[in-house]
Amino acid sequence: MIRFWVLFTFFLLFVCVSLAVTGYDKFLHYSVSYTAYGTSSFLLGDAGGFLFTAALGIGKELWDLISGKGTAELGDLIADLAGIVAAYEIIRGLEFRPLFVFHIAF
After folding, report:
1. What is the pLDDT of residues 54-88, one digit of tens each?
2. Cα→Cα distances 7→37, 51, 62, 85, 90, Å
3. How far apart are CA 45 and CA 96, in angstroms?
4. Which of 42, 76, 105, 106 is buried deepest, with most CB atoms within 10 A?
5. Stretch (H or E) spanning 77
6. Distances (CA, A) of 19 to 11, 14, 53, 61, 79
């Protein structure tokens, strides 16, 4: 039960900080990584889901850096990692492994 409240508090603090300081972008990174890890871990297992989702986040930041169409930021990678960790903790606490794990960003 204490793990739930620690995770819940972390989530609320992350939401407040990401929306107040850096805007909506970090929250979208968090949500996409949360959902991507949930689905990919169902198909690839925990390690495969982590590698796939981390590669997705790193690839997006590299694309932003190389293409010049976006802004590559370390904060985006941190938001991606936070989404992966949160999804892992939620999934690990369940008695079954769901196919879809998502977090609504709106």
Report:
1. 999 999 999 988 998 888 888 888 889 988 988 88
2. 17, 22, 29, 10, 9
3. 13
4. 76
5. helix 74-92
6. 12, 8, 22, 20, 12
